[in-house]
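In response to a reviewer's request, we include the raw inputs and outputs for one of the modeled complexes. The two entities were modeled together in a single run.
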Amino acid sequence: MEIRKIQFKKSIKFLTLLLTAMIIATASASVYYSLTWQPKVTVTAIYVKFTSGSDTPAGSTVVDSWARLLLKSYPNATLTYEEGLNISNADTSDHLIRLRHVDITPAETNWDIGNFTRIKFYLICQNGTQATTFEYTTSGGNSWNEPSTTAYYLIPDGEEWTLKVETLSPATATAGKVADIEIALDIQE
Amino acid sequence: MILPEFFALLGIDVFLMLSLLTCLLEERFPKAVPYIFQIAALIGYGHLLVSREFLGIFGEDMRFWYSFFYLLVALGNIIAINLYLAVEQKLWTLAKVWSGVVTFPIIVVSVFFVSNYSSLQGAAFPTLILQLGLVISATVTGVSIGIFLSPDLLDKLRRRRKEVSKWK
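The model returned the following structure tokens for the whole complex.
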């Protein structure tokens, strides 16, 4: 009888300790789990950035991380912006960059597309060699031929590359028609 | 990726395990011991909470060292119990079982995670000591498992040694 009493007492004590141990272990594990989901994000200066070129059109907006160019296109005459926009690597290490099409308006099947023949971007290295081109053309008067994403190109630290732009409209183009193009500049860390 | 607080978590679990084991072996320990270990685990929990609240202030190194210190205290307690059983209580068999089942396996696990963390995070830690600790602990644990699975293994070895010395 006495032994049974002792055993019972020991069991109760053990079960109580087990219960509290489980509570502590679970609570601690949940605190640790919440720690693993606390990412730290630090704002840092942008290292590959847009800068104005000598031919950046007046009224354009160029800030470090984005640029809006107000380009013109003449009917039946090619207009070239030799230094439309610059891409500058202000970092102390090299980076890979590429151009990627995002969006263009007027949308497909809109006959306003016929007011443009081509809008071509050239990515020019600091030494003047051409890295790649990125060209929008039209077909059938209501369809864009969008360029595919370029390969990655290595822009060395401290270098400034240029985006040369060429525009051309057909002789029959109507003045005032606008094409909005959105292009992403992808930068690898 | 292991966070430095993982060592505090490991320390908490070690304390909780000690609490339960000392409760099971209560005849050999003072009555308050299991509760003291539970309080130590609770302190570890508070430790984790503080670490979470001041995550931005404490650097990675500081977080590692105070978590590691807590784990070290927990490991110290395991070894202290081992010594208590062997020296104070003179329970040699129990002390041997404790070292094979508790002390060395937990040291293996701890050393493994610490070496893993230090190699990934580049913490200033003598890796040679860690590797040595890992090898020694793993060997002892392996031998203990061998003896546990085949209790007459030691006798067989002794007999074989005697036979070899006879032939010589």
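As requested, we also summarize the result in words. The two ends of chain B are 56 Å apart (CA to CA). Chain B has a mean pLDDT of 84.
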